[in-house]
Amino acid sequence: MDYSKKSIELHLKSRGKIEIRSKVEIKNKYDLSLAYTPGVAAVCSEIGRDKEKSFTLTNRANQVAVVSDGTAILGLGNLGPEAAMPVMEGKSIIFKEFAGIDAIPLCINSTDVEDIIKFCKLIEPSFGGINLEDISAPRCFEILERLENELSIPVFHDDQDGTAIVTLAAIINACRVTGRNLGDLHIVINGAGAAGIAIARLLIHAEVKEVVLVDTKGAIYEGRPGMNPIKQNIAEVSNRAKHHGDLQSTLAGADVFVGVSKGNIVTEAMIAGMNKDPFIFPMANPTPEIMPDLAFKAGASIVGTGRSDYPNQVNNALVFPGLFRGLLTTGIKKVTPEIKMAVAASIAHSIVPTADQLMPTAFNEDVVDNIVATITEIASREVIVPAA
């Protein structure tokens, strides 16, 4: 099927994917007087006396801003904020359909770190959380860290930690299917942008045997010249053998390949040079690093991609609806490594996996419920007081 053509037809027909609908009826003067003037003045006064009441007297507690500058759209790169809107609308309908959350796409006309931080701080009173999306590295790391420290609502960069969480979930289930252990795995990640760095951080936290990141210049290792501070930091805790070389040489003897860079860069020969029965996750969109049939032909035991038209989709849509539902419900303000690990495990255990059905689908209602239950349990241990 020509998904590109059909998608354009869909968007033209519906003129986008979202709209705003009223939660209350306005059929007469009485209704209007309660929803608007004069009655609404009393509601404003209540919030003026106690700002926390904005979470109970408005939709704020169920409202998430999806913020992007359009610099890292899918696998397409920097196309600008206007071109980012279809993705942000897509995330908004996933929030609504799978978790009942009202998400508003906000694509902004600046790529400046301080502008983006200021924008998010200025809109904070209207939202219960902020989902950063398609903001390029390395700026995205500073933006997320600053906002986590400077806002009183949760902030999550889905391209970083959403990808990391769902990747860990996929690897957990690959281990369940094959009888292997996380702690024995040698993993190579191609792509050292937002997703690659976040995946590496989470896998290291999960105590896998080895993680090696590869960028356009080859393997990242401590002391490699010309790296930005983010790469320097990850180099200090990864690639303990200090492997030097390109992707092909780095893959030799590895157990797992994770691709979050660009399509058609992995060959059958590269997979054949890995350890026996490797896990292959070519997740570049829209074109994976290697097509699944070729990966299997080369000896892969498990293959998952980021696409919905192949088996074993490894997709962030499994993460952010339930994660934000849990955050908004419990009042947790920051997504810690413990939460990321727990959410990955809850996604993985939402299904009894097989080699051909490694991950639950986004339509599996257990996924959101399990994530919310997991975050609620963590919140109870931390004595978090919900915002609403």
- What do we call the CATH topology of the largest domain? Rossmann fold
Name the helix and strand elements from N-terminus to C-terminus, one letter apiece. HHHHEHEHEHEHEHEEHHEHEHEHHH
Per DSSP, what share of the residues sits in E-state strands of 2 or more residues?
5-15%
End-to-end Cα distance, whole Å, is 45 Å
Question: For this entry, what is the oligomeric state of its chains?
Answer: single chain
Number of domains: 2
Q: What is the CATH top level name of the largest domain? A: Alpha Beta
CATH superfamily of the largest domain, called what? NAD(P)-binding Rossmann-like Domain
**For the largest beta sheet, what order do the strands appear in spatially?**
7-6-5-8-9-10
